[in-house]
Each structure stands twice: as C-alpha cells, then as structure tokens.
Design goal:
single chain, alpha+beta, globular
Length: 146
C-alpha cells in the first residue's frame, strides 16, 4: 500500500519529468503550469532573480527561439517531501541542435527545487540553478560532469 508521502514524492518526480518534456517539446504553456505564479527563480542568466512565472518563461524563451531540437536531462534527483512543502536537488543539462545546425553539447548545472502543495497540486515556488565558481578567476566552471 502506497503512503501519502510516497504518492507525493512520485507526483513531484513526475512534475520534474514534465519540465524535461516541456523543454524538449518547446511548450511554454506546459511549463507555465508547473510553476507558482509568484515563483522566485535564481537562474544562471542575469539578473540576480527572476520574479513571477512570466519572468521564468522569458528566461526559457531563448531555448525555444535558438534551438531546432532540445534535449534536457535531469540526473540524481534527490527529494525531501513534507505534507505541504518539498525540496530537491539534481544535476541538469540542456543540449541539442541549434537552428543553424550546430550541435550544442550544453553544460551540467546544479539545480535546487522548492515546491509547495497549493490547492492539492505541487508547484515549484523557487528554483536555483548554478555552476561552481573558480574563485581566483571569477569565472564559472562549466566543464564538470556528474
């Protein structure tokens, strides 16, 4: 018999799978349904924070306009799930073929997800994406693999 905790964890894992599907299908409306309207996102691109679901989608827009085909991978997703709040972390990589035919290998990033159960549905209320920093040079280290 599945516990509520196990059911919630399975729902959240499926939720993260839908990010993969939304990016690979270039489906901004599908992605929009995964985030709370007031999400705060700390992504690798400036500015320091993106506030609101429209800002989050604007952050994904270059993927839809620059890529002919998109591959998005999430590895090693680890979750901690409570009754109404959950968080997780993983590694993710966006790659694919650009519209000019160039293959884009992408880079592995670290992702943290914070979710809240809102009206019975798990939604991402905060995410953070980062790369390790070489402190001496002040540059991101983008050639590491999990």
């Amino acid at each position: 018999m599945t516990t509520q905790h196990e059911a919630d964890e399975a729902k959240i894992r499926r939720h993260i799978d839908k990010i993969v599907e939304g990016l690979q299908n270039k489906d901004p409306e599908g992605l929009k349904r995964l985030y709370a309207t007031d999400i705060v996102s700390f992504d690798v691109q400036p500015p320091l924070q993106h506030v609101g679901v429209e800002a989050k989608l604007k952050n994904w827009a270059p993927v839809f306009t620059s890529f002919e085909s998109v591959t998005y991978e999430v590895r090693d997703l680890t979750l901690t799930v409570g009754e109404e709040v959950a968080f997780g972390h993983a590694f993710a990589r966006l790659s694919g073929t650009l519209k000019n035919g160039t293959a884009a290998k992408g880079m592995w990033v670290r992702v943290t997800y914070c979710l809240r159960k809102i009206d019975g549905t798990w939604l991402i209320v905060h995410d953070q994406v980062s790369v390790p920093l070489d402190v001496l040079s002040g540059t991101g280290v983008v050639d590491l693999e999990p």
